[in-house]
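pipeline: protein-struct stage 2 | run 1193 | Transcription regulator
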Amino acid sequence: MKNLRLKAARAEKDLSQQQLADIVGVSRQTISAIEKGNYTPTVNLCIAICQALDKTLNDLFWPE
């Protein structure tokens, strides 16, 4: 399932996939795969992404 909430939160912060990847210490391809729903990130990566985007785990990763 695509993670459109992550993509929207990243856009709100005016960050490219590469910029977010650099902040959280992964490749741009990893961020792309998460947004496309092709990769399930670890809890630690989820937390790092949430911190970078000022969002909660529920905001970005909890199923609706």
